[in-house]
Specification:
This is Extracellular nuclease. It comes from Rhodopirellula baltica WH47. The chain is mainly β. Among the domains are: 81 residues, no CATH class; 145 residues; 115 residues, no CATH class; 250 residues, no CATH class. The protein has five helices and 97 strands. The strands form four sheets. It has a 44-stranded parallel beta sheet that branches. It has a 23-stranded parallel beta sheet, with no helix packed on it. The longest helix is centred in the C-terminal third of the chain and has 11 residues.
């Protein structure tokens, strides 16, 4: 029987490399080069090989015989057809570029993409501009499993060249359980010491270690448009920017350029370094996600203030960090910032992560700012489960530092035991930043700056916006020599504390054991608890130790509503301390159990006479004029020998005097001082400034100004509301400053400064009579009175110095607007009573007379700052321990302006040897109404109230029990 020939069948080529020689020769052996060429060409290269598979679905394979030595290539091997390469019978196999060429280049020869799988082999000593060991072309795929890439070099100088071990030029690379170690991108701007990714890269398991690149990405560089996924990968000891060749050296382990994206899950990123930024990771404008990863021991060494990010640097992209541990990293450049994380812009979210650790050695450090985190712009959100602890900053922001206009939100995060050498142990917020603390705890942080403006153990707000809601601010310390604000220091910014916030057990050496607010700041506190804080009380050091709970410095403005201030201690102001220029309002708050040498509950400081400050004015009409208006007075010191007083008046409703020849409206600052109201007019003597020399002829101390009343004939006014003593008489007080245009300063013979012995009003009238004042130009005769004039006093001129000093104290002065017609009979009676001491009325012939002295409106000059207002509060069981008679005020110690209404002041004590004013010690201006002052005690005097001889105390409907 004749047999039929069988049809030839195609069998996939399976090449076994059994020689280490890099040859193409008919020698009875198969070299790696022969196998790859046969697979690529689908023809038998020689008798030793068979043709490879011609279809994309049939993949050839290459394996290695056991016992082969290293294969040293003479030139690059290009793979143009899909291929699987594995060890086969060999336990290991090295393929080397012999430091002369790349090892593999994967490029398609036709339309079909190439897919290459390598497993088990070691590729080493390859050299190329990009991809020292492997180059993957656009659209091609490579899978590495248990592969080692080591000792390979990429020499390309451009920023988009590199990949010491592997360059993925738009392909898809998957790496599993492989080792990429000791590779270099040493070109001038070479990137990606281990891998350069311009496509899609997925790495699972294994390690990428000890690689280096001059420009960026010591381990991996991924470019714009790329995608990088790392799962459970160890990345350690990679270097971006080696000494001497850094250009600039960003992203020690991984650098993402442009809008490339990275997803990192699990794994460890440790002990990597960057010459400039991002010791571990560096993200540009793309999206980087880090989940469950450990980042430790990474270092960024850039010297500039915007360099750093020991573990992660985010340059405007979207960064999300979850369930991560970021500890022991450093920004060690001269001004390096962001020991763990630095974000210049973009959106950063941190969830349930540890930034720092339980002990100081686990903390992150920065030489300048942001021991844990530094952010400039964009947003930063820290969510529940995030713990930022034991980090250190060489200047500011031990836990977190915000430099620019960033919007920072902390939701239930913990900031504990962080340290800043100067300011903001926990947080530091910039002048343009917004920071919101929603819940969480800020505890045991330390700020160690020695200056009075340093501190903020828990939080420091440098002029920005800081909101604290339902948070715990506790056990923080400002331990510098004059450190202030143990819990919070608000330096010229806006601070709002609300909800069930607790500020407790904080301490500062100088001021504000709980909270310090400075000049230019605005602070509102609602329903908070401020308790057990210390200012200058052991273990703090008194320098001097003011405001145990809260200290208001400069012209800071503070409003406290509800809540409580309890158990705080200080040298002055155990609970609250307000400066001579500050403003403190307390509404519905309990101030209890606080202790100080002076002012156990509240201390209101004394302003030096005519110190720099602001005053407000609200005009009340007189004599039925219906005049109303507002104004302000501002005292400033341009130099040591110059003082300025700016007076602003905006009033309306005045009589139109345009039909009365020569009639004018004028305004003066008057003084009100005590005389004997029961003595006849001519027996009372001159007022203290009537002699023009600042004397005190009647010897009585000043009292409150008096606004004349139509209904009150008390020796100060007569029934029609005119002042009994008119201008320049003692009881109402003389004119102490004529409010006119600065043109007055040029009027002869003596300008606006009256000579010694001449009262200001007399001098003013003499100038007007001599024609040295253009009344029409300087004084309005319409229905509005608008003035904004600054009066400058040269303190080296005796007349000007005297006139300036006569203004003191402005809090006991008032501004009066003058000029209207009155009944002629009343005018004549006034002329008779004045006996020529004031300008007479001008009979208009119609039963009325015009009087330039007739007052039409008055405004008290009220300190806007240097004032404490207390409403609906309870001030109880506070103690002042000072032994001197001036060191009392168990409840309140006031040397400024104090207003109290609807308040209970009870159970307070001035316990010192000569302690005075158990409830209130007053050496300033105090107005108390509709309040109860009861059960207070003092060892020396004033169980309820001690009022010194220079004080003014007004009680209305006050129960003294």
């Amino acid at each position: 029987m004749i047999g039929e020939r069988l049809e030839e069948r195609r069998v996939l080529a399976a090449y076994v490399v059994d020689t280490a020689l890099d040859v193409v020769a008919e020698d009875g052996m198969v070299s790696l080069r022969e196998a790859i060429q046969a697979s690529n060409s689908n023809i038998a290269i020689n008798a030793d090989t068979e043709a490879g598979s011609p279809t994309s679905t049939e993949i050839d394979s290459i394996s290695f015989a056991d016992g082969l030595s290293s294969i040293l290539l003479g030139s690059e091997l290009e793979i143009t057809e899909s291929l699987r390469m594995s060890l086969g019978d060999s336990s290991s196999q090295i393929v080397s570029g012999d430091n002369a060429s790349r090892i593999f280049a994967i490029n398609a020869s036709g339309d079909d993409a190439v897919s290459v799988d390598l497993s088990g082999v070691t590729l080493r000593d390859g050299v190329a501009e990009s991809g020292g060991a492997i180059y993957v072309g656009s659209g091609q795929s490579l899978s590495l499993t248990n592969v080692t890439l080591t000792g390979n070099i990429a020499t390309g100088d451009d920023a988009d060249m590199g990949g010491g071990a592997l360059a993925n030029d738009g392909g898809n690379v998957t790496i599993d359980d492989s080792t990429i170690v000791g590779n270099i991108a040493n070109g001038a701007s070479g990137s990606g010491g281990g891998i350069l990714n311009l496509g899609t890269l997925t790495v699972s398991g294994g390690e990428i270690s000890d690689n280096s690149a001059n420009r960026a990405g010591g381990g991996i560089e991924a470019t714009a448009g790329s995608s990088t996924t790392l799962t459970d990968v160890l990345m350690e000891l990679n270097v971006a920017g080696p000494d001497g060749s850094a250009a600039p050296g960003n992203g020690g382990a991984l650098h993402i350029s442009g809008d490339g994206n990275a997803d990192i899950s699990g794994g460890t990123i440790r002990d990597n370094t960057a010459a400039r930024e991002g010791g571990g990771l560096w993200n540009n404008t793309g999206t980087m996600t880090v989940d469950g990863t450990i980042l430790t021991g990474n270092v960024a060494s850039g010297d500039a203030a915007d360099d750093g990010g020991g573990a992660i640097f985010n340059n405007g992209g979207t960064l999300t960090v979850s369930n991560a541990t970021i500890s022991g990293n450093a920004a060690d450049g001269a001004l390096g910032s962001g020991g763990a994380i630095f974000s210049t812009d973009g959106a950063v979210t941190i969830n349930s992560s540890q930034i720092g650790g339980a002990i100081p050695s686990e903390g992150n450090t920065a030489n300048r700012a942001g021991g844990g985190i530094e952010v400039i712009d964009g947003t930063l959100t820290l969510n529940f489960g995030t713990d930022v602890s034991n980090n250190f900053a060489g200047i500011n922001g031990g836990g977190l530092h915000s430099t620019g206009a960033a919007n920072v939100t902390s939701n239930l995060a913990i900031f504990g035991s962080n340290t800043a050498a100067s300011e903001g142990g926990g947080f530091w917020n910039s002048s343009t930043g917004t920071m919101t603390i929603n819940g969480g705890a800020i505890t045991s942080n330390v700020a160690s700056g020695d200056d009075a403006s340093n501190g903020g153990g828990g939080l420091f707000n440098d002029g920005g916006t800081l909101n604290v809601i339902d948070a715990v601010i506790g056990f923080n310390i400002a331990d510098g020599v004059s450190g202030s604000g143990g819990g919070i220091l608000n330096d010229g910014g806006s601070l709002a504390i609300s909800g069930n916030t607790s500020v407790s057990n904080n301490r500062a050496n100088r001021a504000g054991g709980g909270i310090e607010v400075t000049g230019g700041s605005t602070t509102t506190i609602a329903d908070a608890s401020i308790s057990s804080n210390l200012a200058g009380v052991s273990p703090a050091v008194a320098t001097p130790g003011n405001g145990g709970g809260l200290h208001v410095g400069g012209d800071g403005v503070v409003t406290i509503t509800g809540g409580s201030v309890t158990g705080n201690e200080a040298i002055e102001g155990g609970g609250l301390w307000n400066s001579a220029a500050g403003s403190l309002t307390i509404d519905g708050t309990t101030v209890s159990g606080n202790t100080a040498v002076e002012g156990g509950g509240v201390y209101n400081d004394e302003a030096a006479a005519l110190s720099d400050q602001m005053f407000s004015m609200t005009f009340e009409s007189l004599n039925g004029s219906d005049v109303s208006g507002t104004g302000m007075v501002i005292v400033q010191s341009p130099s040591e020998t110059t003082r300025t007083v700016r007076v602003v008046i905006d009033a309306e409703g005045l009589q139109d005097l345009s039909g009365i020849p020569g009639a004018i409206h004028v305004a003066h600052i008057h003084g009100q001082f005590a005389g004997n109201a029961n003595l006849p007019i001519l027996s009372q003597g001159d007022g203290p400034f009537f002699d023009g020399a600042g004397g005190a002829a009647n010897g009585f101390p000043p009292v409150n100004s008096v606004a004349p009343s139509l209904a009150n004939d008390d020796g100060r006014t007569i029934a029609d509301g005119f002042l009994d003593f008119l201008e320049g008489r003692p009881q109402y007080g003389p004119v102490v400053l004529n409010l006119t245009s600065t043109q007055m300063r040029d009027a002869g013979p003596n300008g606006s400064n009256p000579p010694d012995g001449v009262p200001p009003l007399s001098h003013f009238l003499a100038l007007a009579g001599a024609g040295d004042i253009d009344a029409a130009a300087l004084f309005p005769n319409g229905t509005e009175f608008n003035l904004d004039t600054t009066y400058t006093f040269d303190l080296t001129n005796a007349d000007e110095e005297r006139q300036f000093n006569n203004l003191a104290p402005l809090g006991l002065r008032e501004v009066v607007l003058h000029g209207q017609t009155v009944d002629t009979a009343i005018s004549d009676a006034i002329d008779a009573a004045a006996m020529g001491t004031a300008p007479g009325g001008v009979d208009l012939g119609d039963g009325t007379s015009f009087r330039v002295t007739a007052p039409v409106a008055v405004a008290l000059i009220t300190p806007v700052s240097g004032s404490v207002t207390i409403t609906n509060a309870t001030i109880t069981n506070n103690t002042a321990t000072g032994d001197d008679a001036t060191e009392g005020g168990g409840g309140i110690h006031n040397s400024g302006s104090l207003s109290v209404s609807d308040t209970e002041i009870s159970g307070n004590t001035a316990s010192g040897a000569a302690g005075s004013g158990g409830g209130i010690w007053n050496a300033g201006i105090a107005s108390i109404q509709d309040s109860e002052i009861s059960g207070n005690t003092a060892n020396r005097a004033g169980g309820g109230i001690e009022a010194t001889e220079t004080s003014s105390t007004s009680l209305t409907d006050v129960n003294l029990d």
